[in-house]
Automatic annotation (TrEMBL):
This is Beta-ketoacyl-ACP reductase. The lineage of its organism: Bacteria, Bacillati, Actinomycetota, Actinomycetes, Micrococcales. Residues 5-178 form the Ketoreductase domain. Keywords: Oxidoreductase. Gene3D superfamilies: NAD(P)-binding Rossmann-like Domain. It comes from the Bacteria. Pfam families: adh_short_C2.
Amino acid sequence: MSTSRTVLITGGNRGIGYAIAEEFIAQGHRVAVTARSGAGPEGALTVHADVTDAASIDAAFTRVEAELGPVEVVVANAGITRDTLLMRMSEDDFTSVIDTNLTGAFRVVKRASKGMLKARFGRIILVSSVVGLYGGPGQANYAASKAGLVGFARSITRELGGRGITANVVAPGFIETDMTAELAEETQAQYKSSIPAGRFATPGEVARVITWLASDDAAYISGAVIPVDGGLGMGH
Ligand code: NDP
């Protein structure tokens, strides 16, 4: 088994973040999740935080550090969509998605890097999307935010790679969560027909890739984009 770590996951009260927390707990790690509402799974410390607010992120980290120790693994998972065609997309539709998905990850990772630099160890995992590199009609804001995470992870790798810190991107395809449940049945069927695997994934299938990236076995992987999309994107 891999060394037991202190892990913080943003948006761990539902969906993929909740599954990631469950998987880290099952593997014996100390786990904290941030939530704006609700709570993470049993065994996780839930702290209130909004990724659009740097002060709330700072307070969340301070509490986690006090209760579980310095954060060694951070998973920037919190994300939103505000899909609409470019012609109808307001500036607020665009900037609010960037602020949560990209600048939110920056706020979280910047705060996490303090302790990681001191420890000369860290695992930074950013939850992107197949759409980040594939694009999606009606998703200019979301795709831009998710593609931005790739440049962000690669720059961190170049800056901090010599200090025992890795930064990687996981790019899920369609996963069974609230985000995809909103899609009409017909749209879901259309998407499934274009996925080589012929199905959506479970949140656990994403979570187990993330726990592996945080493990001792993945120490030499950094700046990578790992697709978990049943072959939908191919060509990252
Ligand atoms: P959900 O909509 O089920 O959950 C989103 C999570 O993000 C919730 O915990 C939510 O908290 C949190 N969140 C949103 N905004 C903020 C904020 N400002 N501050 C703190 N937390 C926030 O999404 P998924 O679980 O499906 O998605 C998780 C990640 O995976 C996202 O980054 C998403 O883009 C990505 N992804 C999802 C795919 C899918 O098919 N589902 C595919 C590819 C990528 P709250 O409950 O308080 O709103």
